[in-house]
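RETRY 2/3 - previous attempt timed out on the joint model. Re-submitting the same 340-residue input unchanged.
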Amino acid sequence: MKTKFTDEADIKIISGSGGDGCVSFRRVRFIPKGGPDGGDGGNGGDVVIFAKQNLTSLSDYAHRRSFKAESGKPGRSSRQHGKNGSDLKLPVPIGTQVFDAETLELLADLNAEGKRVTVASGGRGGKGNVHYKSSVRQAPKVAQKGLPGQQRGIRLVCKLPVDVGVVGPPGSGKSTLLSRVTSAAPEIAAYPFTTQTPCMGVHTTEIFTPLVFIEIPAIVSGSTQGAGVGSRYFKHLERAKALIFVLEGRADKTPEAYMNDFNIIQGELENYGPELGGKRRVVALNKADVFSDGMALEAIRAALETATGARTFWISAEKEMGLEPLMKAVEALCGADGDV
Ligand SMILES: Nc1nc2c(ncn2[C@@H]2O[C@H](COP(=O)(O)OP(=O)(O)OP(=O)(O)O)[C@@H](O)[C@H]2O)c(=O)[nH]1
Ligand SMILES: [Mg+2]
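RETRY 2/3 succeeded.
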């Protein structure tokens, strides 16, 4: 079964309680008043959240919402220390931000493999009565209680560490492109909003380290106001080095109509924030295979490139035409210098 894509989760976490200290007295034959020998309780386990490679979703936290670390065991006679509770270690995808659910304070940005944050410390174990002996109190009947664990609401927000965002209006061929240039096998269909949640794939090249692509659901006018699927997945573009605007080619479309498509996408990204509005991008005019007139194609491409300032390519994702120059431009945008 396909697990649901989850990029935000509110969970409750509870660290382990400390074990109680023990009240006990040495019982040895012929020594009637053996002193106190109650051991300390073990410490409760911490709750730790850590970034783990190869996780791409917070789906582990979509259904189960409460997570508790182990409590410390009580101390025992003969000064035996109770066992410490184990820490609870919760794995999340690299790129997950950890917030206090109430104050929304950012507790940690787990943006690299192995980064971790302790979100609740375990309660300390109580001291056994062996610690309470004094000159005036030879037989203390008291021991310390273990401290309770901390309970806390945590909000996890995962911004996937992607390299390339694939954006565009409904049905322009984003999923088809993804299926041809990456390992992804997204659903492809002729109806709008086929892609309802982000879809990721890895593009491998000979010279570059692999690039992670993400297709987010189609952008329409008003996405940032909730139209279509809305803009809740735009955050995954924040870490992208480059965007591909995929626009649909149609024989009856004027250059202005392509520009209009471009402006809608650009406007929504800008509404979301300047960071997305200013991302490096290339434009892929898709479905070149439906045209018979090569001259018209070049005129449209040149007009778009001049108007947008972004390198523009005709491709046919379906027929796998023109993908190489497009990918070369994308790879270059993802390179260190960004020159194309
Ligand atoms: N002729 C032609 N059709 C294409 C091409 N690329 C995609 N299509 C068709 O266009 C339709 C939409 O393709 P998708 O890849 O699902 O488009 P999308 O942009 O991911 O769509 P949403 O996820 O709904 O926004 C499908 O019927 C595809 O077969 C192409 O290069 N040429
Ligand atoms: Mg799609």
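The two ends are 42 Å apart (CA to CA). Closing ticket.
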